[in-house]
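Session log. Operator J.P. requested a structure for one protein chain; no other inputs attached. Running the standard single-chain path with token output.
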Amino acid sequence: MPLLAVLALLCIKVFSLGKAYLKAFAASCLTILTVTFTGVIGLFPNLIPSSIDPRYSLTIFNSSSSPYTLKIMTAVALVFVPIVIAYQAWHYRVFRKKIDPAEMAKQGRAY
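Structure written below.
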């Protein structure tokens, strides 16, 4: 994983010099992901290691939710995520028009 991070970092320079900016951006994203995953892989299975005693560390296994909690949260997500997406779509539709200063002054709403 660290080797892939270094390779992606070098690709940023190569793509930037070749004026392939979209590829350079993708290489930059890959660099960030691989550096992050390097740390995550290095800590596995610990999420937060304890400096006092390894028994007190938070691991993937002792900090995960119960199956019942996961079922409840799945139901909540299935109900509320579409509501949030619908609200965002409505919000975008309502505020899609640009504000025209002349029209604002004509309507007497300019501050």
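Operator note: The beta strands are 46-48, 58-59.
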